[in-house]
Amino acid sequence: MKKIALVAGGPKEFVPALTNYHDKDVTWVGIDKGVIYIQESGLPLSHAFGDFDSISIEEKKALSNTLASLSLYSSEKDKTDTELALEWAVMQKPEIIYLFGATGGRIDHLLANIQLLVKQMSFRNIELIDKQNHITLFTPGTYTIKKHKELKYISFIPISHEVKGITLQGFKYPLQNRDISIGSTLCVSNELVIERGTFSFHDGILIMIRSRD
Predict the structure, then answer these.
(1) Helices 81-91 and 107-119, axial angle in degrees (round to 10)
(2) Which parts of the sequence belong to the Thiamin pyrophosphokinase thiamin-binding domain (predicted)?
(3) Percent of the chain with pLDDT over 70
(4) Roughly how many angstroms between the first and final C-alpha of the chain, as a whole number?
(5) CA–CA separation, 141 and 134 (whole Å)
(6) What is the 8-class DSSP label of residue 195?
(7) What is the pTM of this model?
């Protein structure tokens, strides 16, 4: 599997057009009500995870009858459906994992899903995507970032207690070897002023959020 697209059951109004992310290399995986979002988009559902307490009895029965790869869990468990599905996806060793339907609605789920990126940070290529934002976690290093006409705003949020030596080049508000602590808003709502910029840091963990207007 080159790409795995996980679709959780968050509010539908936050889920982008899934067909925009489809190609022959994508394996579509539904998480609870996310199976319905995939099917409504006319995309091929390959796997499903969850307790499926947010879909109807008829939908659940149809899913059981038509899908060979179905991981059914009790609603009383120590991990969320999304965590179980993400653990499975990482084990498949794809090139990239997309996670949709994991924002909006309940804030506890949003915060937990962002922390799942931290838990799986050994797998470096997970994107949490909704209609407004693309969220990616980064560990120390130097990265090139390309200007995107729709995702204009770029924010860097510390996830560890401190991120050390962050440098931003090619940005409207550049930085040179600055340390930022958790809770800092210094790197919120920046923009690229050239086609390709770079950011780097040498210690800590941060998430990059690319946002539309």
Answers:
(1) 20
(2) 141-207
(3) 86
(4) 33
(5) 20
(6) S
(7) 0.88
